[in-house]
Amino acid sequence: MVRERHRDDLFITVPSFFRCPISLDVMTSPVSLCTGVTYDRASIQRWLDGGHNTCPATMQVLHTREFVPNLTLQRLIRIWSDSSSARAGGGGEEDDGGSGRSPAAAAPAAAPPPPPGSPPSRDRALAAARGVAAVGAGCGDTLRRILQFASESEENCDSLARIEGFPSALLRMLDFDGDESERRVRSLELAVRVLGMVSSRLEERASFASAVAKSDRRRLDSILAVIERGKPESKVAAVRILEWAAVDPETKLAMAECEQLLLRLLNLVAPETDLALLDASLSCLIQISVSKRAKTRLVALRSIRRLAQLLSAPTSTVPVTEKALKLLEVASSVKEGRAALCGDAACLESVLQKVFKVSGAATEHAVATLWSVCCLFGDQRAREVVAECNGVAKMLLLMQSNCPAPVRQMAGDLLRTCKASSRPPCLSSYDTKTTHIMPF
Length: 440
What we know:
Elements lengths: L1 H8 L20 E3 L5 E3 H9 L18 E2 L1 H19 L2 H4 L7 H4 L15 H14 L4 H11 L3 H8 L4 H7 L9 H17 L6 H9 L4 H12 L2 H14 L3 H8 L2 H9 L7 H14 L3 H9 L2 H10 L5 H14 L3 H8 L2 H9 L6 H17 L3 H9 L2 H10 L4 H17 L19
Antiparallel strand pairs: 1-2, 1-3
């Protein structure tokens, strides 16, 4: 019983106003901003050094970045700390069983602090996330701890997503304030990576999409800055956020109207791009290229040429090939896209080569693209390219395979079109040394 009571004494309740709103730790050197809010000196100094000019708790613009020591609060924290230590060391006469040891000797040794880089405990990480939600901001160290916690399991990401106000606080951290320094970009990367891990678990996807794409462009500009200047894992998270935000036609159109967004994504469509980032970029482009206006803009930015280079690259994986072919199918559904495809014989040849030996999805996208330019658009140049690249034999094999009925129907249309467009042998130039024996 004595041991249980002593164990319970180790759990000490910390007054909330003793904790720093940023780090959520007990303040060692409390200082107050001009807004009247008190922070730990180290935490608020990192916040200000990060280029922020607002109070993290109130988000008010600071007319001065100076702060003053809060000596009264520091004195209260010291008194509380001393009294807590005395309570933790008390009860030694009962615990030592009359051995005569002093209370200090009877008190158990304090647990050593966790080593640097060790994963935070669940309670500590969730408390940090709640603190971010409460003040609408968080320093780099806090976000790193939360990111480390989220990276451990899917369950941890679900727990973070369910904290009220936490995703909104992360979004507010993306409000672009004109600061383009390297330190600011690193800070944005942390917020984007955490947001990328919780965004797909949000129930209110529509409101999230509106906060990302339909705001005053400040958040979108911050995401684009991370895509341009961030590390590969941060870029992937930023692109995934855009893909998840593209939930309705209005949001997709708003993204497609942003030329910088399309350019950033298309610049990543290259064989040398990291595979995870390339896959994410193609998925995002497919997601937002739904309206006719979006498809036309995509074609105008010379996406056909980039996709053709991607298909001809020997390092392209099956998922990348499937998505590249899907984008070409999307482009072929508008007149401008069909015209661009017909003017690129190398691209058509690459598409024809992907009809077999990739996957069923790749076959469907490739055949649909060829059908659009050869049958729907009726371009003679495209028909000749398909016929010269053994397209007739490929379509015959495809029709005999166990492919879906729509694909077989398009293959039959392509077969008839290509046979009609193939150059027949010229009988007048037929020359052979074979002796023909006539029956009479």
